[in-house]
Amino acid sequence: MNNDPFIKIENLNFAYGSGDEMSRPILKNINLTVEKGSFVAVLGHNGSGKSTLAKLLNMIESPVSGKITIAGMDITDPEMTEEMMIEIRRKIGMVFQDPDDQLVATIVEEDVAFGPENLGIEPKEIRRRVDEALKTVGMEQYATHAPHQLSGGQKQRIAIAGIIAMMPECIIFDESTAMLDPTGRKDVMDTILRLNKEHGITVMTITHNMEEAVYADRVIVINEGEIVLDGTPKEVFGNVEKLHSFGLDVPQVTELFYELNLSKCRLPSDVLTEKEGADVIARMVL
Amino acid sequence: MITDITLGQFFPGQSVIHRLDPRTKILGAIFYIVIVFLAKNVFSFLLLVAFTLFLVLLSRISPKVVLKGLKPLIIIIVFTAILNLFGKKGETPLISFWIINIYPEGIRYAIMIIIRVVCMLAGTSVILSYTTSPTAITEGIERLLSPLAVLHLPVHDFAMMMTIALRFIPTLIDETDKIMKAQTARGVDFSSGSLIRRAKALIPILIPLLFSAFRHAKDLSIAMECRCYRAGKGMTHMTTHRFGLRDYLSALVMCAFCAAVVLLNKYAPGFSL
Ligand SMILES: Nc1ncnc2c1ncn2[C@@H]1O[C@H](COP(=O)(O)OP(=O)(O)O)[C@@H](O)[C@H]1O
Ligand SMILES: [Mg+2]
To answer: Disulfide check for A144: which of A244, B12, B120, B174 has CB 3.0–4.6 Å away?
Structure first.
């Protein structure tokens, strides 16, 4: 079980609608495996099919052809029961862009309890999970507040707590920091990293923020429904021209070094953070 | 400005009233309103006021908060009082000038209306809305209506709709505010012109608001599915309420209160309002 990948996608094809509409494929021949406990960032410009991929993993949509296996369970099997579907949705939590569209209840702790309540967990255990989930995201002092009194970043952390309370093995973040201010973004990003590193939760982040993708073990680039790049952040962000042609940016330092190299400098092309960049320059100057 | 409307006026706490079963509180609040309208003379009114004060103290909600909650309704209270003051005809007018006649009956009636409305609002607030979380209220309604589920009426769906509506009121108010500002910036004028013109100016607010409500609904339904929601099938609740001793006792207290009001109406000497 241990060396089995957590998510395994084979020859996946997908299109929305039926009949004529289906002539426009959204995802084309996707093959992808995600290891348990890993941190994967998914990049791609608007409309490239990232959210659709996430919805397929969560059984919100079902593929036209191909096979998806999650924790050894074939979710494309037509014999799937409702119970099995609920189990998949418990295992793979989803956090979306707009925190307002994820919170159901008018009191924070009651919202966090929503997932476990749906799963039919017994009340005492729900209470325990809610308290623990709120502690994990650092929002325990807001347990009895109303969500609309909180900031965007705080609301997003409540949404994350609501997912953690279901005890998932994997969480997909679909542009979950896109609507937040820099502080909120940092708080949420710290929470995501902590979930991955300390709690061993497999993380998939869909993001437009290249600085966030740098934290991942692995970066996948989707363009027009196809996986076009797949590797460590250093490998992927080395392809500056290719990324630009897909309508994507690279981290600012990488971009700067790339431009300098065009003007005949000889700088490494796999520098991703300001700190690394500063070290490289310091070594050259000293 | 419109974002100032405070909803979700629940104040978490540990008082006896907080800990009652929401079903008790819903039925209690309805019963309380009935009693408020039963009171008829000075003595039953005094009892009514005393009992309301007792409830406020029992809920451990600061009386200041309760008074503040009445503030937005002052205009309505004063208006109905004035209407009654001038509207009620008696035999000999107390004050009379020009076409206005004020009779003692009118004064009594106005006082009575004020006491009734204030007691009703303060009482139901501390019995229900200030001391019960919206989720508990919907849970209570769901369970009170649960016999109807036998007739295949969608009781759970109805309760869920209420929860979500309550949850989204502040969000949609924020949105209305934003849309109004955006449309003002584009030159839509909401504050001048004839009534029809002003009504027409609302269209550029309502249409975007409707669109945004549908978008919220779509995204929220996906998020709910991702959180394993399946229309209440096999659903448990974090806080389950059960009728306990304190629920039966409060039912008893309410019945005694009702009986006292009725008896005072009937046997207390004179002074009928
Ligand atoms: N419910 C839907 N019905 C039809 N087409 C859709 C639906 N959702 C998304 N699409 C289309 O699928 C494509 C991919 O969308 P999406 O997966 O949301 O992209 P991304 O998340 O990468 O921005 C887009 O062209 C979009 O218009
Ligand atoms: Mg998307």
So the answer is: B12
Identify the bridge partners of residue B97 per DSSP, sorted by sequence position.
B100
A238's tokens = 């080395």
CB contact under 8 A, A146 and B170: yes
User: What are the residues whose beta carbons fall under 8 Å from the beta carbon of A259, sequence distance 6 or more?
Assistant: none
Interchain proximity A104–B224, CB inside 8 Å: yes
Which residue, among A117, A167, A175, would best test binding to B if mutated, counting the most B CBs under 10 Å from its CB?
Answer: A117
Nearest protein Cα to ligand 1, atom 20? A47
- Interchain CB contact of A166 with B (< 8 Å): yes
DSSP annotation of B120 reads H
Report the pLDDT value the prediction gives residue B108, as an integer from 0 to 100. Answer: 82
Per-residue pLDDT band for B169 (boundaries 50, 70, 90) equals confident
Q: Is A160 on the interface with B (CB under 8 A)?
A: no
- Judged by CB atoms closer than 8 Å, whether chains meet at B236 and A90 is answered as no
**CATH number of this structure's domain A5-250:** 3.40.50.300
Structure ipTM: 0.87
pLDDT digits (tens, 9 = 90+) for A205-262: 999 888 889 899 999 999 999 999 999 998 898 888 888 898 888 888 888 888 888 8
Domain residue spans of chain B: 2-271
Q: How far is B219 from chain A (nearest CA, A)?
A: 6
* pLDDT per residue as tens digits for the range A21-58: 667 889 999 999 999 999 999 999 999 999 999 999 99
Q: Are A59 and A75 in contact (CB under 8 A)?
A: yes
Of the listed ranges A12-16, A170-174, A217-221, B75-79, the one predicted with least confidence: B75-79
Taking residue B64's Cβ as centre, other Cβ atoms within 10 Å add up to 8
pTM check: above 0.90 = no
- Beta-carbon neighbours within 5 Å of ion ligand 2: A 51
User: What pLDDT was estimated at residue B20?
Assistant: 94
Cα of B16 vs centre of ligand 2, distance in Å, is 48
